Amino acid sequence: MIKTVKGCKDIYGEDIEIFRSVEKVLRDSARSYGFKEIVPPTLEYSELFQRSVGEDTDIVEKEMYTFTDKGGRSVTLRPEMTASVARAYVEHHFETLPSPVKLFYIGPCFRYEKPQKGRYREFYQFGVEVLNDESPYLDAEVIALAYEIGEKLHLKDLKVKINSIGCKKCRPHYKEVLREALKPHYEELCDDCKRRFYTNPLRILDCKRESKALKDSLPKITDYLCDECRAHFEKVQKYLSEFGIPFETDNTLVRGLDYYTKTVFEVVSNDLGAQNAVLGGGRYDYLIEEIGGRHTPGLGFAIGMERLIEVVKSQKSAQNEKEELVYIAYGKGLEKEAYLTAKRLRSSGFTVIVDSKGGAFGKQLARSRKRGAHFTVVIGEDEFKKGTVQLKDMEKQTQTEVKKEELTEAIAQISESKNGAKESNAPRK
Ligand code: AMP
Which of 174, 209, 308, 409 has the largest CB neighbor count within 10 A? Predict the structure, then answer.
């Protein structure tokens, strides 16, 4: 049997439904902020990523799908899309467009990584890029958009982490200060960080293998910013506070690449467990120059779609578990009444199953229990005549007679008192 290539996957069934609905939230959100879509090609010349993503990164060193095409050129299946957007900006003279140029993208990316849950060799990224404008207002606006997306997808305990990593004026000095502080700990560093000590010590700050205690003991970059970077960072924080976006500064948050400048940020959520970054982004005022364009400030973020889909999926199953299942048992000839009762409950958001066989109530109740129903509504002949039903709480094994028109409210009340929070179990009204 021929299978999918290792690390690649078919997206089908529930996953593609969720993918498309998440995609719609992302597209609509980006459009509402004035972003226009761009669809770059999947294949680029390898040089683009060597120059933009950088030689000294895991992506370029180990993870690129690079091959020589039949014309002898080195080409690469893109590992990310910012570089492609930057290339398109220079190639098509987007500097002639009104600034800021606001673009969004969604598409597959490729990295030759060890496949594991949430990590694939082909995965999808959505991202936005703001080009040719250095206003700190835009940093805050892009972060607000990122936060808003998290809110729209109902991610839990959303928080924004921000930091400033300075610019070409102030960062070199900080790197020296950092190296000095790291010197006594050199032997304790992991092998990658021993190399980073010489090539780019900033990346030691976001290495998962180094201890928090070590990182906390190191000098903070925000104490070494030049006046321009400090003023920029203060403004970003001021705007975020004014916009009501909860954020905290995290001095260990860095982007290892030299073209990143000033603001870097992550949006984190408790929904994602240990790997809790929903998305990451930052300002990259030197990127366009790096690939041969004129000095052009830029800013953006990228989200991995697979992670979002996982979260939305787990939320859905949690919701389904909480949804109240109501089972309806009925006496002889009362199918119509059972159907109408079910209809009323369904329109209030309950999931309702009507017994399909009728017959002895004992047997109907046994079927209700087998289904895992939370409530059974029993419509007997006597009750029908009185305009009432028996409401059985299957968990507590209690039974109360309630008026037909008060049934929905009665079930809602019991489930609310059982579960404390109204949102969790009450019907969706
Ligand atoms: P990065 O470009 O490494 O900053 O990653 C941006 C987003 O892409 C993150 O949200 C990652 O979860 C996602 N991502 C990166 N690599 C992979 C991968 N191999 N599989 C799935 N998602 C990925």
Answer: 308
Residue 93, domain member (yes or no): yes
364: in domain: yes
Q: How far is the CA of 275 from the centre of ligand 1 (A)?
A: 11
* 300 ligand 1 Cβ < 6 A: no
Whether the pTM exceeds 0.85: the reply is no
Residue 297 per-residue DSSP state: -
The finding on whether 206 has its CB within 6 A of some atom of ligand 1 is: no
Strands 247-249 and 159-164: parallel
Cα(207)–Cα(205) distance, integer angstroms = 6
Whether 306 is in the pocket of ligand 1, judged by its Cβ within 6 Å, is yes
Q: What is the pLDDT of residues 348-384, one digit of tens each?
A: 778 889 999 889 999 999 999 998 999 999 999 999 9
State the distance from the centre of ligand 1 to the C-alpha of 39, rounded, in angstroms.
18
The verdict on 63 and 17 lying in the same domain is yes
Domain holding 39, by residue range, is: 13-170+225-314
